[in-house]
Structures are given as structure tokens and as C-alpha cells.
């Protein structure tokens, strides 16, 4: 089980949503020292209409970008670390440009989006000299100087609109709870809703398995319970019309994209379990854990 379930959720969540409009790499290593970018994004060569569906997050995805989400309010040294990763990518791009004898401009470089649930006005103003651009971006997004290509998204300051929904999912407490309710109200055939729900249910299971979830985590578990029960009922309904094997295969495809030879080997042993049991396991276990658990001799 991951030591930081919320951090793992944030990376997987951004990877799933941004993966609809570009190439995503998580934990991308930065040259010169062992540091990892949480989420590195490069848009597809051909623009996708799905950026509209992603709302404000889709606007961030117009260019190559580094995404660094934080569960707690970001601290000064953490910002320095994030910017160090960004500047390392600048240096890497510059070295590549020299090798290939091509021209490199500032517009060719990625942007850094730091996602923090909260940040004080004093910290943003006096500490970072970060400024709002409400005319173009609205509230809650603070930009550094143009050369740094860096901004902080203060999630709890974002307006409660559909455009900000996918970012507010990464908030805390009431902000996240409200976003989850809005997510639940979306049509069930919305592909982004399905991706977000699956990842939230994975997080719920991880928190349930903790020895001592704190009060906020227990509250999040309760908030997600209606969606969890909805998922169970969906499986039960499908089970009345299809064999359990077909249901398991459908859930595996939703989670992993396709069923290869290794995953195919776990279908049969999962199919003999009760629906609520195999749904729980499919939201709890990783691909490797499923294979190891159900294909051992």
C-alpha cells in the first residue's frame, strides 16, 4: 500500500484525465540528480476537442507542462524544489537544441503548474510576488514572472463552476466534497466521470485499509460511499444480464485499458467470487497484485 495515498491519487488522476489530450509521464526523472516530476505532460500533435471537456485543466494542457499537486498547502522549499525540476527541463531542452542545432524560444519550454489546496495572501504576495490575471484566468491562479513560466493554482479559491470541477476534485474538505457531489451528478456515460470515479474508489479503498484513518479521511470515505454503492449495484445489474466472467472482463478493461495474456489469466478465478468481492479487489489491487494473487500455482 502506498505511504501517501492522496499523493498517489493526485498523480494517477491527472495522468488519467490529461492522457485524453496528450502524452503523460509520471515520476519522470530529471537529469543531473535523482529528482522526479510528479506529472510531465506533452499535448498531442493534433489538438483534441476533449480539452474543452477538461475545462480549466484543459487550458493548462494547451502546452507542455509539469504538474506538481500537493495535498497540504505548498511550502516555500517545496516551491523551490518544483522550480528546480522545471529549470532542469529547461537546461535539458537547451542541450538538445544545441546538439540538433535548432532554435529554442521561451514559448517552446514547458510551464509549471503547482496545485495547492490553500495559500495565504501574504505568502503569495510578499513571499512569491505572484499575481492574479483575473481578466484571462479568473480567480485562484497566481502567476510568477513570465521567464519562470510558473503558476500556483489555489484550489479553494477557484469558483465553483463546471470549468473548475476537475481541479476542485484535488482540493480538501468541503471543496473536495462539493466537487465529488458535482461529479456524481454528471451523466454516467461521461468518460471523464468514469475515470475519476474509478480512481476515487481506489483511494477510498486505500484509506479504508489504513490502520487509523484520520477524521478527514473517514469523512472522505463516507462522502464516496454513495458512489461505491452505485458501482456495486451497477455490477449486480450487469450480472443479471451477463455472466460474471463478462462483468470481470469489462471492469478489467475499464481499469487497465485492455486485457493481455497475463490479465486474461485472472479473469476465471475472479469470476467465481461474489460481485461485491471482485469489485472490491479490482479497485484495491494493482495490476501486479492481481496477477500475483490469482495466477500463483
List keywords for this structure.
297 residues, alpha/beta, 7 strands, 55% helix, 13% strand
Give the topology, please.
Layout: H1 5-18, E1 22-30, E2 35-43, H2 50-53, H3 56-60, E3 65-69, H4 76-100, E4 111-116, H5 121-127, E5 131-132, H6 134-137, E6 141-143, E7 150-154, H7 165-168, H8 173-185, H9 191-208, H10 215-241, H11 244-256, H12 261-271, H13 275-284, H14 287-294
Q: Mind describing the biggest β-sheet?
A: 7 strands, mixed
Order of helices and strands: HEEHHEHEHEHEEHHHHHHHH
Cα gyration radius (Å): 21 Å
Low-confidence stretches: none
- What is the 3D shape? globular
The end-to-end distance, rounded to whole angstroms, is: 24 Å
Q: Briefly note the structural class of the backbone.
A: alpha/beta
Chain-averaged pLDDT: 86
> How are strands sequenced across the largest beta sheet?
1-2-3-4-7-6-5
The count of DSSP E runs of length 2 or more, i.e. the number of strands, is 7
In terms of DSSP E residues, the strand content is 5-15%
Quickly count the domains: 2
Tally of individual helices: 14
Estimate percent helicity: 40-55%
Care to describe what's here?
Helix content is 55%, strand content 13%. The protein is of the alpha/beta class. The protein has two domains: 5-191, no CATH class; 203-294, no CATH class. The chain has a seven-stranded mixed beta sheet with strand order 1-2-3-4-7-6-5, with helices on both faces. Strand 6 and strand 7 (150-154) form a beta hairpin. Helix 8 packs parallel to helix 10 (215-241) and helix 11 (244-256) packs across helix 12. It starts with a helix and ends with a helix.
Amino acid at each position: 500500500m502506498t505511504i501517501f495515498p492522496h499523493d498517489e491519487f493526485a498523480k494517477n488522476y491527472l495522468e488519467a484525465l490529461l492522457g485524453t489530450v496528450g502524452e503523460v509521464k509520471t515520476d519522470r526523472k530529471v537529469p543531473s540528480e535523482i529528482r522526479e516530476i510528479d506529472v510531465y505532460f506533452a499535448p498531442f500533435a493534433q489538438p483534441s476537442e476533449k480539452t474543452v471537456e477538461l475545462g480549466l485543466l484543459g487550458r493548462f494542457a494547451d502546452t507542455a507542462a509539469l504538474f506538481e499537486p500537493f495535498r497540504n498547502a505548498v511550502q516555500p522549499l517545496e516551491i523551490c524544489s518544483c522550480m528546480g525540476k522545471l529549470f532542469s527541463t529547461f537546461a535539458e531542452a537547451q542541450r538538445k537544441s544545441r546538439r540538433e542545432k535548432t532554435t529554442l524560444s521561451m514559448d517552446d519550454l514547458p510551464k509549471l503548474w503547482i496545485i495547492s489546496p490553500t495559500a495565504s495572501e501574504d505568502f503569495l504576495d510578499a513571499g512569491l510576488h505572484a499575481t492574479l490575471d483575473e481578466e484571462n484566468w479568473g480567480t485562484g491562479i497566481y502567476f510568477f514572472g513570465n521567464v519562470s513560466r510558473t503558476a500556483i493554482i489555489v484550489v479553494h479559491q477557484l469558483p465553483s463552476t463546471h470549468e473548475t470541477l476537475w481541479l476542485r476534485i484535488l482540493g480538501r474538505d468541503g471543496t473536495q466534497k462539493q466537487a465529488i457531489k458535482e461529479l456524481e451528478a454528471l451523466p454516467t456515460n461521461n468518460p471523464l466521470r468514469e475515470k475519476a470515479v474509478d480512481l476515487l474508489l481506489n483511494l477510498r479503498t486505500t484509506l479504508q485499509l489504513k490502520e487509523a484513518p484520520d477524521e478527514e479521511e473517514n469523512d472522505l470515505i463516507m462522502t464516496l460511499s454513495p458512489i461505491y454503492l452505485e458501482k456495486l449495484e451497477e455490477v449486480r445489474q450487469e450480472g443479471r444480464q451477463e455472466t460474471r466472467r463478462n462483468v470481470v472482463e469489462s471492469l478489467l478493461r475499464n481499469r487497465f485499458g485492455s486485457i493481455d495474456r497475463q490479465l486474461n489469466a485472472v479473469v476465471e478465478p475472479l469470476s467465481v467470487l461474489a460481485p461485491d468481492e471482485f469489485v472490491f479487489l479490482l479497485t484495491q489491487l494493482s495490476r501486479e497484485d492481481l496477477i500475483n494473487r490469482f495466477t500463483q500455482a
